[in-house]
Write a structure and sequence with these properties.
Structural class: alpha+beta
Radius of gyration: 33 Å
Number of strands: 11
């Protein structure tokens, strides 16, 4: 199927969804021969291995030792999940990244390694429970499905384990690559709080005061301007100076000096207004934590760093209109951005590139789900042959349909549910300090559930059709 899809697409330029990467015809055609040769070689290796490799017969002592290891693993797996989820908070590791990583990584890796054994035991118990319920509730389909799952847990456990591990590992990789630093988190919080009500105009120091004043006067009504200067004067208590009119300072939520000769020293911690704290944090070029606030008009360009254009409360700034005015009033070389754009622009680019991970994860999950669907259907068809006499003598095909739904579709739905729970449990601890991931990977988890469920529904319908066709051919013998 992969070879067929590659052959169909190799004649056109096509773009990968969400990643926006274009795979060109010239690139594909140059690698067609190695690609098809490797696909043929892979098929030959698989067929050769299937014919020549025989499973080793296990001795009784090996079986007993294996049962002991599985029993130990199925009890340790929940403890490992609990260690990864609760361990960092119990040991107060939120302030110590090394301790957090030690506890979390140990618990997460142990949980993923022991998960197959735990899921195998869980599959057996769920089969017994389903059979018990079917017997007591008078549900023959549940009884038959439960008995088969309990007697043959390996096939079901392989399906559940592969899907759960892939969803969990994909969520882990995506979350690790989407984690943010303290500076990234602060910049994002600042931009969300300002909500496009402030823009920063950089590179304006080469403009004479007349042009700056013309630019300020041309701004729409309700928009005020603060100027950010750097100063080496020993008389000032801070090296960053924020200058603006009385109205501009009040609109920015900043303290206002009593007269133009007075200078106030303000810090982010001492400012009550959220907007004022964000403006001070943006203006603090020297990262000293304090800014000198002065009242007055923009009268000079020496040491001028940036201009902060502030909208009135509840309003937003139209960026293109400010750019248009800057083009008319200022000399070339200026730049308009939102506060802390130097942090979030890089973060946005990184996240766009990070969509490669979900894309490959979805492709791998689709292929793995399809393969496990085929393997599970083969196991179910063996079971359906033994079930055919019961279905024929019962005279109702609904028994076959419901048994197929429970064995086939139920397996994949349970695997998806357990995979989502495992992914959430292992990524939630990274939503806070010292590791800051930008939310749960809901998009990845949602698409994973959609892919598995869609394939499960299609393959279940196919399994029902094939099983009913086979059961219709059964005839009693040795009468």
């Amino acid at each position: 199927m992969a070879v067929l899809a590659m052959y169909v697409w190799q004649g056109t330029n096509w773009s990968l969804p969400k990643v926006n990467y274009v795979i060109t015809v010239d690139y594909l055609q140059a690698h067609l021969v190695p690609f098809f040769a490797s696909a043929g070689l892979a098929a030959l290796v698989v067929l050769t291995a299937a014919v020549t490799v025989q499973p080793r017969t296990a001795y009784a002592s090996d079986k007993g030792q294996g049962r002991t290891l599985i029993r130990v693993a199925q009890w340790l797996c929940p403890l490992a999940f609990a260690m990864a989820f609760f361990g960092p908070s119990l040991f107060s590791a939120q302030d110590n990244e090394m301790l957090f990583l030690l506890l979390y990584a140990t618990g997460a890796l142990t949980a993923l390694l022991l998960l197959p054994a735990a899921l195998s035991a869980l599959t057996t118990q769920m089969g017994r429970l389903l059979g018990w319920w079917g017997r007591h509730a008078g549900r023959p389909a549940a009884l038959l499905a439960g008995r088969w799952i309990a007697a043959s847990p390996a096939a079901v456990a392989r399906v559940v384990t592969s899907i759960v591990l892939l969803i969990g590992l994909s969520a882990q990789l995506y979350t690790w690559n989407n984690r943010t630093t303290e500076s990234d988190a602060t910049a994002l919080a600042t931009q969300r709080m300002l909500n496009s009500s402030v823009v920063v105009v950089d590179g304006v120091d080469r403009n004479p005061p007349q042009q700056l004043q013309s630019f300020v006067a041309a701004l729409p009504a309700g928009q005020k301007v603060l100027a950010v200067y750097s100063s080496d004067s020993p008389q000032r208590q801070a090296r960053t100076v924020l200058l603006g009119s009385d109205a501009a300072l009040r609109q920015g939520g900043l303290p206002v000096p009593l007269n133009e000769q007075e200078s106030l020293t303000a810090s982010v911690e001492q400012t009550d207004s959220k907007r004022g704290r964000a403006l001070l944090q943006t203006a603090d070029l020297m990262a000293e934590g304090t800014v000198s606030i002065e009242r007055g008009d923009i009268h000079e360009t020496k040491n001028l760093q940036t201009l902060q254009v502030i909208a009135s409360t509840g309003h937003k700034i139209d960026g293109p209109s400010v750019k248009h005015l800057a083009n008319q009033m200022l000399k070339p070389g200026w730049h308009i951005s939102v506060p802390d754009d130097e942090w979030t622009a890089t973060l946005a680019t990184h996240r766009e590139h990070n969509w490669w991970l979900p894309m490959f994860a979805m492709a791998a999950l689709a292929i793995l789900s399809f393969a496990t669907c085929l393997a599970n259907m083969a196991e179910f068809l063996r079971f359906s042959k033994a079930l055919s006499p019961t279905v024929v003598m019962a005279g109702s095909r609904r028994l076959f349909v419901w048994t197929t739904l429970l064995v086939f579709l139920g397996t994949f739905l349970c695997a998806t549910l357990v995979g989502i729970c495992a992914a959430v449990a292992l990524t939630l601890p990274m939503q806070g300090p010292p590791i800051r991931a930008d939310g749960l990977p809901t998009t990845l988890i949602g698409w994973s559930a959609t892919v598995v469920t869609t394939l499960a529904i299609v393959m279940t319908a196919w399994a029902v059709r094939v099983a009913l066709k086979e059961s219709g051919r059964w005839r009693p013998t040795a009468d």
